[in-house]
């Protein structure tokens, strides 16, 4: 199945958005982490400098001792088990001083000692991970040189909690923005695709016969499309009328010679006359049936709604004229206007054939009733003639009978009625009339 | 009875002319709408048979134009398409009946006879005047149950007089309605026909069916006994 343009665009926009947002999130996250790590290092370096500034080398009985106050400037170093730790060692790993916060914390001893350089490392110690800075410096006194290693460490938890907080807000923003973007995208898409929806609706109107062409104002991008559709409709209508004209002409040219032949055959006295007459009748029935069928089958339905009542009245008046000798009492019961979407020619065929049958078979009375029932129109045609027996009813309602089974007058006309009803999805029912004869109920 | 056939197909036209002539009608023909309209306007026809698909002027137009100039003779239309819209259009234009091609000549004859009878307000094919019985279907006349031996023209005269029994028919009118335009006419022949008919119809001289109105013409003098003739003719 082909997905709709709408879902295609929404799907691709979604994929692009997810990729873009993930990448943005990833880049921002990385940058933030790097930044925060750098600032941590900077902080640790500052701590080292502060300690260096605080430390004093005292000569005590000829022994040089590095002195630091119990409480240092950085309050976190003075708090028991805070996240920041500091200590000073000799190069022989002898602890000279350690901050109060060190209490139970074990820091690794420095491995490589490089004078005057800061070395950063990340160490896991038990459950905790620390960022550790080592700085080795030398105090030069008159007694010689004294090297000390300054160690400051900060628990990475501090960092992580910041990163987690940042991520939380970063991703919630990204997701929020994504939702807003998708919503906007959907709205834009609906608005952008609206002309196409209108074209589709208009085409549906054409299909059900409410309009003949695409008449709305469409955006430039689809104007060519609608223009072409209109041209297609035009050409199909022209083709249809050419086709019908051609069929009419064919009927005309075929039937006149058949009439002549019939006349000739009737004046001859050959013993094969009956066979010739039969064959000619068969030819005529086939021609007639196929022509009528071709006129209705496979047609594009582009009909305007027309009023049923004037057409019915016209046919009624015509039939009254033709059957004037029978002195038929014909009744038409109808409301003022009854619109039905059907080709005018088809309506004439439908009503003409049914009403003529009623006039033909009636004794003295014919009644036609037209009702508007919900979305369908009911046409009842009744007469007071002999009616139609059950077997005949079934035969009439059987669709698609062979041409040679239809005799002109009764069968062929009703085959035509069946074809038209099939085309317009109408229904025919044959029952008995209260007037005594047949009652044909058409729903269209 | 004089008929006009307008049909553009020569074979069919001739066939119909021949057939209807054999049936005792005076038949004129036209091959297109214009010529047909002209003939219908100029000559007193009793009925016209008009094909719908005609060159120059369509059958519908011909009928409309006749009706506009008050030509009231009945018109039977012939149509090849058999479309109801065409039939209704033709009948609305002023035609009285239609026949869909192909048709049997017998059917054409039956429709023609019915239309002719209808046009003068006679409803059945058999018309009874006391002992005289005229069968328009068989074109036969019986007097007291005995069939008369009539020539085609004698029958035409009696039929025309009977069909127009409330009117005085001049010799010229009678001539015009029993002969087509190509016939060499002699109005004295009418007097001979009427004389012979009087003898045949009323040998005893009691009924006096055909009355002579001096200087004006003839009139059928009997009243139909098998049915009431309609007072109004079409």
CATH architecture of the largest domain in chain B: 3-Layer(aba) Sandwich
Query: How many β-strands of chain B, per DSSP?
Result: 11
Compute the separation of the termini of chain A in Å.
35 Å
Q: Classify the secondary structure makeup of chain B into a structural class.
A: alpha/beta
The most extensive contact between chains is: A-B, 34 and 29 residues
What Rg of chain B is obtained from the alpha carbons, in whole angstroms?
18 Å
The named CATH superfamily of the largest domain in chain B: Response regulator
Strand residues, percent of chain B = 15-25%
CATH fold descriptor of the largest domain in chain B? Rossmann fold
Which outline of chain B best applies?
A: elongated
**Largest sheet data of chain B:** 5 strands, parallel
Report the top-level CATH class of the largest domain in chain B: Alpha Beta
Secondary-structure-based class of chain A equals alpha+beta
Q: What does the average pLDDT of chain B come to?
A: 84
Q: List SSEs of chain B in N-to-C order.
A: EHEHEHEHEHEEEEHHHEE
Multimeric organization: heterodimer
Description:
The complex is a heterodimer of chains A (444) and B (234). Chain A is α+β, with helices and mostly antiparallel strands and 444 residues long. Chain A folds into 3 domains: 1-207, no CATH class; 220-296; 305-443, Heat Shock Protein 90 (2-Layer Sandwich). Chain A contains 9 helices and 14 strands. Chain A has helices at 5-54, 75-78, 156-207, 220-267, 273-296, 308-322, 344-361, 390-397, 411-423, and strands at 56-60, 63-67, 84-90, 95-98, 118-125, 128-141, 144-155, 305-307, 329-334, 339-341, 365-373, 376-383, 427-432, 438-443. In chain A, strands 4-3-7-6-5 form a 5-stranded antiparallel beta sheet. The two termini of chain A are 35 Å apart. Chain B folds into 2 domains: 2-119, Response regulator (Rossmann fold); 126-220, Arc Repressor Mutant, subunit A. Chain B has 234 residues and is an alpha/beta fold. In chain B, α2 runs parallel beside α3 and α6 crosses α8. At the A-B interface, α4, α5, α6 and α7 of A face α1, α4 and α5 of B.
